[in-house]
Structures are given as C-alpha cells and as structure tokens.
Design brief:
Elements (H helix, E strand, L loop, with lengths): L5 H29 L7 H9 L8 H33 L11 H15 L7 H29 L6 H24 L4 H12 L11 H16 L1 H7 L3 H6 L4 H23 L5 H13 L3 H23 L10 H19 L11
C-alpha cells in the first residue's frame, strides 16, 4: 500500500478545494438569483439562465435585475480579497486591506460630489448611475493615489511606512470632505443616495457596468499571480528579500500602484465595501498556506462566495428594504477584527501575515 506524503496530500487537496469553492460559488449564485422579495424555484432559475425552457414571467427579475448584481458581487468580492492578500504581504501587516492608501476615500469624494451636485441627474438620472458616478469615483480614487504618492516621496525616499502614513492622513482628510459634502447637501434624496453609496452596495448593478471591472479583475489577478515568487520573498523580510535579488522598494511601489488602481475600479462600481479584503486573505491562508501562487486563486473564489452571500443577506433579511451590503460586511468584519487582536495581542499589527 502506497503511503502519501504531506506534500502529495497537499497537491491532491488543492484541486479539491478549488473545485469545492467553485461549486459553492455556483450554489451561492443560484441562491442569489432565486431568493429575494420574489422567490423563484431554483429549477426555474436554471432554466431561465440556460435557456432550456420558456423563461416565463420571472425572466426580467432573474436576467435583468438579479444576475448583474450577483456577477458584480462575485467580481468585487474576488478583487477585494486578492488585493487585500497582496497588500498584507507588501507591508507585512496582517491588518492591511484594499483601502490602505486612502483610495476608497478619494472615490467617495468623487462619487458623493457628483451625487450632491446633481451631475447627470434630472432627465438623465440613469446616466448618473451607470456612467457619471463610477467615472467620478475612479477619478477621485486616482487623485487620492497621486496625492498619497506625492506626499510619501516628498522630503526623502519613499518607504512603506511613509506610504502608509500618507495614506492614513489623506484618508482622514478626504473622509472629512465627504462628510462636509453630505451635510451641506440641499436635497434629502441626494443625501440618501450619497449615504447609500458610501456604505457600499450592489443595487445599481447593470449589464453595461460589468465589462470594465471584470476585465480589470481578470488581467490584474493574472498579473499578480505571475508575481507570486517576489511576493513570497517579501515574507522573509526586507533584508532577506534584498539578498535574494529583489529590489523591494521598486517592487513595492509598482504593486502598490497596481493594487490601488484595481481598488479604484472596483470601488467605483460598488462603493466602499469594507472588511472583505481583511478577512478573506486570512481564511485562505489557513486553508492553503502563505504561498501566493496557490493563495491568490483561493482568496479570489472565497471573496466572491462571501460577497455574493453577504449581498443575498442584505436584500433578504429586511425585505423589501435593501440594506447596503457594506453594513453587513462590517458587522461580520468587526468581530473578526477583535478576534485578530485577541489571537495575537502582542503583535496583531506587525510581522508577516499569519
């Protein structure tokens, strides 16, 4: 009888894990299409999606309302989880997340500014949802990134510490500006829309919004997977990575820019959905270890499953009221954050990711 070594068992378990996560994502998607204020049998959902039978009266609900929302949730969840995984390796801080450099705060300023000023509103209100708000949010995210980098490079070499501190400072300033825009809004409907956006939600998902974030996620994740080896080298520490031939300063700067741009695109279409990029990387590491070639696909699938299920809960727990999904991810992430502090009370914010 052949005895399998731990390495062999690991090689066998990894494909099974990917298969299980893919199946779970499929099940979560079907649940997201079937459940809501109008419940549709799962068999009928599958018939509508596959075109196997006459779609019946539920076609519009499934294909035009719920399916774009489920797909956007999967894309955003996967992207935030991948970005969080990479940033935790870059700064060797297990509490880093995709909003580390103030990108979400910049996006919030852009989106809220457009909503409060009513740009694209009135007769073209649909334009504000599908084009103007995401475009302004991405512009705000890009402006925030440029500002943070300018501050981090000013007066000396750009280090990880300077970059993070600049990001925190800019984030506070832009958050205050967002609040100022909201409290000075002259219309209650604008204030409500702006508040909903800042809390993060997928309710505005449309088919014409999916192409850009999906393409960016696919290209960005593929590129980050090719950088798995240098990301692994960072886990041994600054000096060790340098000795092994990695230009850590240049590599960190390049990947920070890439991660921030990915975050900006995703946040532009979903709002600031927090804690996904903090929680899922740790869950993925517990399943497959710290090697990024295996870790990133698992984190992506896990993030997609988590956000699809979180959005399902957001629109069913208080139906017909649609709760911003960012509220539920924060309610989940808060206890997780406290668990992290209790797990490593002496070093929860330092060192290599656990």
């Amino acid at each position: 009888m052949t005895c399998k070594t731990p390495a062999t068992r690991g090689r066998l378990r990894y494909p099974l894990l990917l298969t299980a996560l893919t199946a779970l994502l499929g099940a979560a998607a079907v649940a997201g299409l079937a459940l809501g204020s109008v419940r549709i049998p799962a068999t009928q959902v599958l018939e509508i999606v596959t075109g196997a039978a006459d779609p019946g009266p539920y076609r519009t609900i499934v294909l035009d309302v719920r399916l774009p929302r489920v797909l956007l949730g999967a894309v955003v969840g996967a992207g935030l989880a991948v970005i969080g995984t990479v940033l935790q390796a870059l700064v060797r801080n297990q509490l880093a997340d995709p909003f580390l450099l103030g990108v979400s705060s910049g996006a919030s300023v852009g989106a809220v500014g457009v909503i409060v000023l009513g740009i694209g509103g009135g007769a073209g209100a649909g334009l504000a949802t599908t084009v103007t708000v995401p475009l302004a949010a991405f512009a705000g995210a890009l402006g925030s990134l440029v500002l943070v980098y300018g501050l981090a490079r000013g007066g000396g070499a750009m280090t990880t510490g300077r970059l993070v501190l600049a990001g925190v400072a800019v984030s506070y300033i832009l958050s205050a500006l967002t609040s100022l825009l909201m409290v000075t809004s002259a219309r209650a409907d604008h204030l409500r829309e702006a508040l909903y956006w800042t809390l993060g939600g997928l309710g505005s998902a449309r088919w014409d919004m999916l192409a850009l974030p999906t393409t960016v996620l696919a290209v960005g994740t593929a590129l980050l997977v090719t950088l798995a080896r240098p990301l692994d080298l960072l886990l041994v520490g600054e000096e060790g990575a340098t000795v092994l031939g990695l230009d850590t300063a240049r590599f960190r700067a390049a990947v920070f820019v890439l991660a921030s741009l990915l975050t900006g695109v995703l946040v532009a279409f979903s709002g600031a959905i927090g804690f996904v990029g903090l929680m899922l990387p740790h869950a993925a590491r517990m399943a497959v270890g710290a090697g990024h070639r295996r870790l990133l696909p698992v984190a992506a699938l896990g993030g997609a499953v988590f956000l699809v299920l979180a959005d399902l809960a957001a629109r069913t727990v208080a139906a017909p009221q649609d709760i911003p999904v960012g509220v539920l991810t924060a309610l989940t992430g808060g206890p997780f954050f406290l668990w992290m502090l209790r797990r490593r009370p002496g070093g929860a914010t330092e060192g290599a990711p656990a």
